[in-house]
Amino acid sequence: MQNNAVVEVDVTENAIAPMRDGTVLRSDVYTPRLAGPLPVLLCRTPYGKQGEAFGADYAATAVGLARRGYIVVVQDVRGRYASDGVYRWLYGPGAAQDHADDGYDTIEWAATLPGSTGQVGTWGNSYDGYTSLRAAGAAPPSLAAAFASGVAERLHDETFGIFKPIYLEWNHGMAADLRARAGRPAAAAFAEEMVWTLPYSAIGGDSFADLTVPFQQFLREQEIDYWALHETEPNISVPVCHLTGWWDYVCRGTVAHYTGLRERGAAALRDQHRLTIGPWSHRTGRSAAGGGAVDYGPAEYVHYHDEIADWYDYALKDEDPGLYRRGVVKIFVLNENRWRWLDSWPADQAQDTQFFLHSRGSANTPRGDGRLSMDEPSSAAKPSLYIYNPSDPVISLSDWSSRAIDQSVHDRRQDILVYVSEPLERSLLVIGNPSCTLWVSSDAPETDFTAKLVEVRPDGLSVELATGISRTRFMDGYGSVVRLEPGTPYQLTLDLGPVGVRFEPGSRIRLDISSSDFPNFDRNHNTGADFWSDPELRPARQTVYSDARLPSHLTLPVCPDD
Fold it and tell me: Residue 74 contacts by C-beta under 8 Å, 6 or more apart in sequence?
């Protein structure tokens, strides 16, 4: 890879791109002083191309890409910051079509920029990754490849039909530009106590400026998937590189879009798509590396712009600094602290292995009698019980930017059942999609159950690896509502999301079961009423079974040693 650290980059601000309906969108264009012509890489963002919202540093990424030999365009999407038009909220009608049409038109405009080869690629993380894939789904002729990170195939890959109170702060930040555009006073800083509002329908008035009304509608429509990027898969006609992190809360959804493209996309492109999973959160590259309770070594420290440029060097220039020819899937294996290349996801050699839950009826806390073992449970095993009180939920230890979080903060909570294996005699390599099958009952008509896969390291540090949640009302799908019969056992299967980890000798495998992860997910009120309008919070008596007749178990994709 050529060292272009000293390449000068010229920046043209607010370059005008007309859309098909006459609306003008504005972009900053970064042009390196290199011999051309050069491909163009486009990012379309609602967060302000100069980092106005949430502190995103688009300029640093754009300059890094330009120095790698690309013309870079960062555009404010319709109705945001420097661009004209009306912004339509992401989780409502019309937004998908806006991003598809405007993405198409902007790509064709970017292909005509001075010094361009006529080839355009897209890039972006989170919402910006969404705009990248929506544009790819519109199949503009000048699009040559795409890159998207931290973006789920479906909204339910991220929410499971449960409102995420962390959206409140996001919505507050999104409203700032709308206030400024309308000449209205700026709002006060976001108040953390808003997440505790009961009910959420009480959040009204000018809370989120013009987004308040669509937000209130969104509360009522958690079963609707407005994200729906699976719709793009049959229409995408270029190679796509997906990037995510093991602790990215949309990791499972990013992987789902990659596998969806291979299964439902153009057959000729199936082996050209790529997937990278690193030791990161929803933040990308070096900005996420080294955080949390564990540092996984120098191999995790990479620049986001280099991940993007490596892909486009491979896809557009027939170069391979990112080693994409080694395999279609590139993963960072935790505790090996190195990158591996796979021929598929999940790994072909992985074998689903069951670890059964065992208890004599007191699995509460790590000091309880909960065990994980490959031995099948006995008929004499007793269920473990706890009280889930939504007035005192289990507080989320991780957020969108955290990784490798120590779980000891919650070790005294009686509303968390803990099942732990014996220390491993030899290492165990787990790569794939673990799940947790629970037999449960409740005295509530509706409730939630959570599962968390934890690595207990030889020194006793307990690190979260993957999580899942299930709202019982959606046991039969998002199109119907299930009511529980008190005391009746039901089987739930919780998808824990992708993992890639080597459990070292002396470490233990741990599974935590509870009923809340707040404010990552809204508290279930346990009443069966609509959460958004219900002011009541009711405790629920929860039972987890682990006997021969009702064998709750953890399933891990175990790979043979090399």
Answer: 27, 28, 30, 42, 43, 45, 49, 58, 59, 62
